[in-house]
Write a structure and sequence with these properties.
The chain is an alpha/beta fold. It has helices at residues 2-6, 79-89, 105-118, 214-228; strands at residues 11-14, 33-37, 53-56, 69-71, 95-98, 124-132, 135-144, 147-151, 157-162, 166-171, 180-182, 188-192, 197-204, 207-212. The protein is built from four helices and 14 strands. The two termini are 25 Å apart.
Length: 230
């Protein structure tokens, strides 16, 4: 299921946050349309990635005359919102979002609210990495609108954060929820799955689910090594 998600996107949106561990890019398809917010443009040079489009008001990009730069001056929207709308207008959804976290905390919270607001049909998801003793761990963020099913290694950390009052039922978690109202007073932080198959059903509202997919990425690495005979 994780492999299916990682093969579903038509584009990648790079934000001006911390990019994932470089080794994660070995498992990603970069031969898609690359869209960068203007703050991410210069960072991409370190990854030898050239965006097809760079979106924003131009306040963060050093090379404003880049052929890829499209200036959008709407100050009522963030560069992330502008990039999502631009991507949607080009029919390039679903889109993988990178550079989602890191930097200032208000940007991270804002990004979480924005991805929840604009993802209506699981059209947007993000990947984030964190350091562990042997390499890096990986988190997948998806927006729950109605129902979402996924297969994960048992014991994977799962967090459910509502950005509006929501009613949710889960199956396969240590602490399952049944028609549970989640809001600012209650949300599910660092739960984990006790079965490989996990089901999330939402009857009201919208929520952001953050899943640890470190073991799934490790499995992809082993598959790649077998193919390359490493």
């Amino acid at each position: 299921m994780v492999n299916k998600i990682l093969n579903s996107y038509k584009s990648i949106i790079f934000l001006n946050g911390d990019f994932p561990n470089k080794k994660l890019f070995d498992y990603l398809d970069l031969n898609v349309t690359i869209i960068a917010t203007d703050g991410a443009f210069d960072k991409l040079k370190n990854y030898s990635i050239k965006p097809n489009y760079t979106i924003g008001d131009g306040d963060s990009i050093k090379k404003k005359k880049s052929n890829s730069f499209i200036q959008i001056l709407d100050q009522n929207k963030t560069d992330f919102e502008k990039a999502i709308i631009f991507t949607k207008n080009l029919n390039l959804l679903p889109s993988l979002v990178l550079g989602f976290s890191g930097g200032e905390i208000d940007h991270i919270i804002g990004n979480a609210q924005i991805i929840t607001k604009y993802s209506d049909k699981n059209e947007l998801f993000f990947l984030d990495t964190y350091p562990i003793k042997k390499g890096f761990g990986t988190k997948l963020g998806v927006v729950l609108n109605k129902e979402f099913n996924i297969n994960l290694s048992i014991g994977s950390t799962i967090t459910i954060i509502p950005f509006k009052e929501s009613i949710i039922t889960t199956k396969g978690l240590k602490w399952d929820l049944k028609d549970k109202t989640i809001n600012s007073n209650f949300f599910s932080l660092r739960n984990y799955n006790t079965s490989n198959g996990v089901i999330f059903k939402l009857s009201k509202g919208k929520a952001l689910i953050i899943l640890d997919i470190t073991q799934e990425i490790s499995s992809l690495k082993k598959q790649l090594n077998r193919i390359l005979c490493i």
